[in-house]
Amino acid sequence: MAASSRRTSVLLLAVAVAAAACSTASAQTRLGKLVVTGVVPCNTGTLIDVATSPAFPDAKVEPRCGGNAVAGGTTSRDGSFAIEADMTNALPALVGACQLVVDTPLAKCNATLPATGALVSYLQGPLGGMLSGVFRLTPVGFSFRMN
Ligand SMILES: *[C@@H]1O[C@H](CO)[C@@H](O)[C@H](O)[C@H]1NC(C)=O
Predict the structure, then answer these.
(1) Choice from 43, 46, 110 to test ligand 1 binding pocket (greatest atom count within 8 A of CB)
(2) pTM recorded for the entire structure
């Protein structure tokens, strides 16, 4: 009886070790996370100063890396947003080429502003993300672009 229960616990231990090894392996193949945070201004212009502009609530924002959308989100009432995306195989190489595109026209936050065109900003962050597996990017400055 005692021997069989010890065999059972050895078996359970083996299962636990195998499960731990598996989860470690899958954590290694996952390349990390992209975290994009910022505040969208309700304004036109070039390199808009977010601090002196009204906020843009309920704006659809889309980080694009190498021209491809990697995720999407919406700003909250104060114009801020936070987006997380899993790194795919191609993404780390493209982190230097990411932009944030605001898909909601400015007329939505201020009727006197254009109903076409979009705010766009390059995204930048510390390259130390390469070590921690978390790339944190923020907009460096929104500019209005006709499209
Ligand atoms: C709307 O935009 C116009 C033109 O930029 C500006 O003068 C006005 O103050 C804005 N209104 C609000 C409520 O921010």
Answers:
(1) 110
(2) 0.77
